[in-house]
Amino acid sequence: MIMHPPGGGADGGPVAAGVSNAPTTAAVVTPEEETALAREATLVGWLRDHGSVAIGFSGGVDSSYLACVAVDALGAANVRAVIGRSATYPAVQWERARSVADMFGVPVVEVDTDELHDPRYAANPTNRCYFCKSELWNRVIPVARAQGMNVVLDGTNADDLHGHRPGARAAVEQGVLSPLHELGFTKADIRLLSQRRGIPTWSQPASPCLASRLPYGTAVTSERLQRIESAEDALRALGIVGDLRVRDHGDLARVELGREELEEWLSPSRSAGLRSAVCGAGFARVALDLAGFRSGSLNVLTGVTRE
Amino acid sequence: MTDPGMSSAMQTGTDAPVVREGGRVTGADALARELMAMGVPCVVEARGTLAVVVVEADRYAGSATLLESLEARDRVLRAAREVGFTHVALELREEDN
Q1: What is the pLDDT of residue A307?
Q2: How far apart are CA B31 and CA A48, in angstroms?
């Protein structure tokens, strides 16, 4: 376990520009913003009622927002953002998480997780996320207790529980609380409030773990995860900024891009570079999905959910 | 959902008939025929409910350019859904013209 002190001030209080509740612009508050700000005020009260919190922290939109508000509400001394590290967690996401934490003075603790060595997880069943999250919380909760944190939180929001989310059950079973869900925060609320606070993740695409690129039933191995991560890194290096998934179909990589970028990369003058980048990561064949990015795409492909 | 075809099903998108031996037209066959009608000569490789469109090498650039159009892609996706595919992907090839 590695403990990283907050990157900001020594008093444990708010330390970074942009953490205050002041809006970034003096624009008129829209009804949506008013609703979101009311939820945020409720969240601050909720956090203060709990005194100190450990947060499962991925550096994604939701947990970054929650960690920043928690530091604002409770002071850094009463917050731990716990990063679970394994081969399923992209290195670029870790860098982003550390960057946000440094920017906003969020104390970070890192723990290694070992879900790949759990055969129930590695077999990649449709409830794979349950075993991954069980492993995560099994590691995080003792750390939280050892550091004197009263409760453990995750960044689940009110929009999250509509799809196929077996990982949520692991959190409930282990007593992990989900204030963003409990208080009705939508993803749009979180993006809007993150933007107001200057949290750079506000516009970040969703970034689930790398295993989500493997069809159910395809074993999760570090080699497969590494190939996917290399391919996605190579595509980011080409300049793709929006939603992006490299879905692993064995010899074939099926690339899903956000609709705003799909047309550009279908052009033969651009697609050659895309193909070359993905083949360079170890795939023999590359195909571009004509519908573009769809969250939970492999759930539909394997019949776990319907469109 | 209808069965889009056996996992190994492939059908040329040229002028060859798409009706297979025994008279059965698979989803892959039907989709290849629709693509051919749009000007995309190809084979369609069915992998479960994923259709991989493999365009003839000497017609790749023109076909890919055609599919840059949202309208064309929507037409392909609709045709694919009608025969049981949930996903359609265009295999990328080197430009050959």
Answers
A1: 64
A2: 59
Residues of A with CB below 8 A from B77's CB?
290-291
Q: Which residues pair with A55 in a beta bridge?
A: A81, A153
**Confidence check: pLDDT of A37 > 50:** yes
Are residues A290 and B89, on separate chains, in Cβ contact within 8 Å?
yes
* Dist. CA A127–CA B76, nearest whole Å: 32
**In this predicted model, what pLDDT tens digit does every residue of A42-94 receive, in sequence order?**
999 999 999 999 999 999 999 999 999 999 999 999 999 999 999 989 998 99
Q: Left if phi > 0, otherwise alpha if psi is -120 to 50, otherwise beta: which for A79? A: beta
Task: Check whether residue A74 and residue A153 sit in a common domain.
Answer: yes
Residue A174 belongs to what domain range? 2-203
A307 found inside a domain? no
Sequence ranges of the domains in chain B: 21-90
The CATH number linked to A276 is 3.30.300
CB contact under 8 A, B95 and A268: yes
Same domain, A34 and A159: yes
CA distance A270 to chain B (A): 10
Same domain, A199 and A269: no
Domain end: A203, A233, A263, which one?
A203
CATH dotted code for B21-90 = 3.30.300
Q: Which residues of A touch B (CB under 8 A)?
A: 249, 252, 254-255, 263, 266-269, 271-272, 274-275, 285-291, 297, 300-303, 307
Flag whether A76 is in a domain: yes
3-state secondary structure of A175: coil
Task: Measure Cα distances from A246 to A15, A53, A146, A297 in Å.
Answer: 38, 35, 39, 11
- Is the predicted pLDDT of residue A27 greater than 70, yes or no? no
